[in-house]
Amino acid sequence: MPILVRVPYCAAGLISLISLVLPKNLLAQQPEIALTEVVVIGSRDRLLATPGAGSVLESRDLERSRVFTINEALRKVPGVFARDEEGFGLRPNIGIRGLNPTRSSKVLLLEDGLPLAFAPYGDNASYYHPPVERFERIEVLKGSGQIAFGPQTIGGVINYITPAAPQQFGGALVARGGNRGFRDYQLRIGDRLGSGDTGWSASLIHKESDGARENMALSVDDVALRLDHALTDRRALALRASLYREDSQVPYSGLTLAEYQANPQRNDFRNDRFELHRWALSATLGEQFDAGLQLRTSVYYTYLDRDWWRQSSNSGQRPADASDPACRGMQNLETSCGNEGRLRQYYTAGIESRGTRAFAFGALQGEMSGGLRHHVEKQDRVQANGDTPTARTPGTGINAGIREDNTRDVAASSAFLQAEFVAGAWRVTPGIRYEYVEYERRNRLPGGGTGASRFDELIPGIGITWEWRPEVTVFAGVHRGFSPPRVEDVIGPAGGSVELDPERSWNRELGLRLRPRTNLTLEMTAFDLDFSNQVVPASVAGGSGATLASAGRTSHRGLEFAAALDLPQFMSSEVDAYLRTALTWLAEAQYLGQRFSSIPGSTTVAVQGNRLPYAPEQLATIAVGIEAPLGLAAEIEAVYAGASFTDDLNSVPVSANGQRGRIGGYAIVNATVSRRIAESLTVFASAKNLADRRYVADMSRGLTPGPPRQLQLGFDYRF
Predict the structure, then answer these.
(1) 5 within some domain
(2) Which long-range contacts (CB under 8 A, 24 or more apart) does 685-694 make?
(3) Which of 265, 287, 374, 632 has its CA 20 to 30 A from that of 152?
(4) pLDDT at residue 542 above 90?
């Protein structure tokens, strides 16, 4: 795997960079975050001073709901649209503030501050996501502060935090089962070694289910290890390793309209197979220097191998390819019809240093932070068409054999500098990020070519907070939204230049954060995403593999509201109660300027003023819970998503192939009840989609139903 270094990179250089921009006589303050923690926000209390909209989901929030998937968790955050696919959260589709959620490609996903996606620069699509149970906290930041991470700075950054080693031996054993063949086993354990300077923790998870549709057996194993070692009182090291395996029958295609009307849980592609293996290693060295400088240096490496053998890529392709002469229709699906093997390998590595230095200079106080990163990616991509529905090797038929064989390499260097100035009630946080990216694509088929491209980008931003009163904070911000194109969008299969521009926008927000009482927090945010170039699929129904095109100007505007209320001794009783809400009104998500449809046969139809696909106007999640004597607890949660269009024509009737039309709004109810029967043992029951509401979740590759009712019963034993 080539590693191309284009800029000087070392921790010492970062120390010098931050030191040079600060006067020598500034007084350092003690940092609040652990030496090896790379966080986006930090604790929920730190949200009060954050110059932008943000949310923190603590472990208690996740346990109260007995969260089943990452989609269920993220719906608790305003502005986030998490769309289901296979009902297990294996491949989340996350959109923020009206951005297309397909494969979460416009969201930056991090784990402990490091890239989680297998190709965040060259192919930021989420075909993999670890189980939500691996994490103890989830941070979501949508304001200008996200430019400190990148490369995606448009919708928001989601950072998953893994638990550090415990101070003494302990852990938890959780098991639950339910209908549709659901089984889930979790073991978390950790301890301190020797004198206590070294701690370790481990997480082992196994999940299996029959899935949300027929013939969709799913099986997932996840193992995560973490070692925390205090080298000195001013230096600490965190080592992390994880292994992940998925073996499933998940199809790529949705249903046609006729298939959905006959049986929405139908799946005829019983021979499809998805196999994924991933392992990852990372290390973070945290150091505290004199003069208040804190430095965190991380190195990371991930390898992902994904084989997806399938007979259809969308509901308009029945079943494998129109030129498959041995197939002749669905009646031969399990005999003479061939398949496609989309075989992928991804290698990702990087090194990153982040430094912070707090200061005080008269009445002016604050913190300076900066970072440098060098990141490389390699994609190895093969499409092997088989002759039979169960083939796992290239065939010899007319349309069989190796149809794609290429490598795609990315080398990216980035730097950011951000300052936080505090004077009285005001906090001003300007910053800038620089990205330099090199692409290379090599076609290994006979007659194939090689192409290369490069670009760079400056990404500025500024955030401001004003503490009007101790319980009232006003915040505002503006920053450059940036999303790099995929390698295939810049370099064609023959090596020629496609040169699709990066996605760019100006993102603005104005908000109010209230804490009138210690048990009540409110946040209201108005946002405006003004795109000079939003990138959309050229074919609306092409799925995540579709060719992309520049859509030109688009606009996203709306309001977000979040509230959290805790009521100890509710109504003077021994019952504690709480309320959580997350509301979103996406008032505008539309095409601007001169814009014509991308749908074949409609390319002369103007669509300016039409609503963008998969951008529901309303989103709402409201949860109410109680905690009563005798260890009793219960929560009921309502989740609503408004209607949305699936194409730029804003078609209403659903097309015959199930890939165009209007998706109706839907509401589902989740409920959880638990009883602590001993100090360390809790039993619980939960219901997801309690009323078994039938609804459509997606139509990008055909009609995909939302998950049916899921009933679960389990126990949680702490030791």
Answers:
(1) no
(2) 685/711, 685/712, 685/713, 685/714, 686/65, 686/66, 686/68, 686/711, 686/712, 687/711, 687/712, 688/68, 688/72, 688/712, 693/666, 693/667, 693/668, 694/264
(3) 287
(4) no
Tokens 């700075």 -> residue: 153
Determine whether 44 is exposed, middle or buried from the number of CB atoms within 10 Å of its CB (0-12, 13-18, 19+). Answer: middle
Phi, psi of 587 (to 5 degrees): -65, -35
pLDDT at residue 20 tops 50? no
- The answer to whether residue 4 sits within a structural domain is no
Q: Please report, for residues 23, 167, 208, 664, 665, the alpha-carbon distance to residue 697 in angstroms, rounded to integers and kept in the order given.
A: 55, 43, 22, 9, 10
Q: Using alpha carbons, select from 42, 128, 117 the residue that is nearest to residue 89.
A: 128
User: 107 is written with which tokens?
Assistant: 């969201």
Q: Which of 148, 140, 149, 107 is nearest to 562 (CA)?
A: 140
Is residue 328 situated within a structural domain?
Answer: yes
pLDDT digits (tens, 9 = 90+) for 206-249: 999 999 999 999 999 999 999 999 999 999 999 999 999 999 99
Quote the number of domains for the chain.
Answer: 1
Sign of CA dihedral 129, 35, 8, 19: positive
Beta bridge pairs of residue 115: 110
Using DSSP's 3-state secondary structure scheme, residue 42 falls into: coil
165, 240 contact by CB (below 8 A): no
**270 lies in which domain range?**
11-718
Q: Burial, 235: exposed, middle or buried (Cβ in 10 Å; 0-12, 13-18, 19+)?
A: middle
Residue 6 forms part of a structural domain: no
pTM score of the predicted model: 0.93
C-alpha radius of gyration, the chain, whole number: 25
Q: What token pair was written down for 249?
A: 């029958």
CATH number at 54 reads: 2.40.170.20
